[in-house]
Write a structure and sequence with these properties.
158 residues, alpha+beta, 53% helix
């Protein structure tokens, strides 16, 4: 999954860098041409043929880089989420579809100091972490901690 998605993202990043470089070169050429001419009517061809297209290429390259990096980040998040929720539920029917169930079912609640979520003890985000401590009920009631979207601990558990 990751290699297929990254192969489609890398050309976008390369195209973005190429457009940025070409735009910068055109802007420098346009600036050099304009600076050598005294009269505005002789400067206009340099502006029209180099500086304006160069600026457009810089903007296009910036957009391509932003899109490519966003797509790369989205691909990584999808991959991590797939690894995190790769739990095969026992009540899957014959077609392979399973009822929506949380990835963790333990009744013990944990939190990571400095974190913003509270989790079940067998949640993949805190399982095996030595720094995980039992949830402080005051933090949950005060709204400082929210329930984990992966293990979905119920409010009544806290």
């Amino acid at each position: 999954m990751r290699t297929a998605r990254l192969r489609t993202v890398h050309p976008v990043l390369w195209a973005g860098w190429a457009a940025l470089a070409a735009g910068a070169v055109l802007c420098v050429i346009g600036w050099y041409g304009v600076s050598g001419e005294r009269f505005a009517e002789r400067q206009l061809p340099y502006l029209a043929s180099c500086t304006v297209p160069g600026a457009a290429l810089i903007i296009a390259g910036s957009l391509l880089l932003t899109h490519g990096r966003g797509a790369l980040a989205a691909a990584r998040v999808e991959e991590l989420y797939g690894l995190l929720v790769a739990v095969e539920p026992a009540d899957a029917d014959e077609s392979g579809h399973a009822a929506a169930a949380p990835a963790a079912v333990s009744g013990d609640l944990l939190m990571v100091p400095g974190g913003t979520l509270w989790h079940r003890a067998d949640c993949p985000l805190v399982a095996g972490k030595a720094e995980a401590v039992p949830v402080d009920a005051k933090l949950v009631r005060g709204g400082e901690l929210g329930p984990c979207p992966i293990c979905e601990p119920a409010e009544a558990d806290g």
